[in-house]
């Protein structure tokens, strides 16, 4: 399984949707709360050029927002 990371905030509904999707499909992931972790927030912006969340990294591929089709494709989920 590819390494999955998500940069999120507690109030982001799309972040919750992404994490629920990962849990439903037994995908382990590292979650970084960029509302409180300034170092990870800076890292997220450097990697994606975006301030919006979620920013999801799957095997080095960056996805901004909850793009279920792209996430499923990258993880091999049907």
Report, as a whole number of angstroms, the end-to-end distance: 15 Å
Question: Any idea what the CATH architecture is?
Answer: 3-Layer(aba) Sandwich
CATH topology, by name, is Glutaredoxin
Structurally, the number of domains stands at 1
CATH class: Alpha Beta
Report low-confidence residues grouped into runs of 5 or more: none
Number of helices: 3
Say how many strands there are.
4
For this structure, what is the CATH homologous superfamily? Glutaredoxin
Percentage of residues assigned to helices: 25-40%
Strand order of the largest sheet: 2-1-3-4
How would you summarize this macromolecular structure in one to three sentences?
The protein is α+β, with helices and mostly antiparallel strands and 78 residues long. The chain has a single domain (4-73), classed as Glutaredoxin (3-Layer(aba) Sandwich), CATH 3.40.30.10.
Polypeptide structure, described:
The chain contains three helices and four strands; from the N terminus they run E-H-E-H-E-E-H. A four-stranded mixed β-sheet has the order 2-1-3-4, sandwiched between helices. By secondary structure, it is α+β, with helices and mostly antiparallel strands. The mean pLDDT is about 95. The protein is globular, with a radius of gyration of 11 Å. The chain has helices spanning about 15-25, 40-50, 70-75; strands at about 5-10, 30-35, 55-60, 60-65. It has one domain: 3-Layer(aba) Sandwich (Glutaredoxin), CATH 3.40.30.
Q: Top keywords for this entry?
A:
alpha+beta; about 40% helix; 4 strands; 4-stranded mixed sheet; single chain; about 80 residues; Glutaredoxin
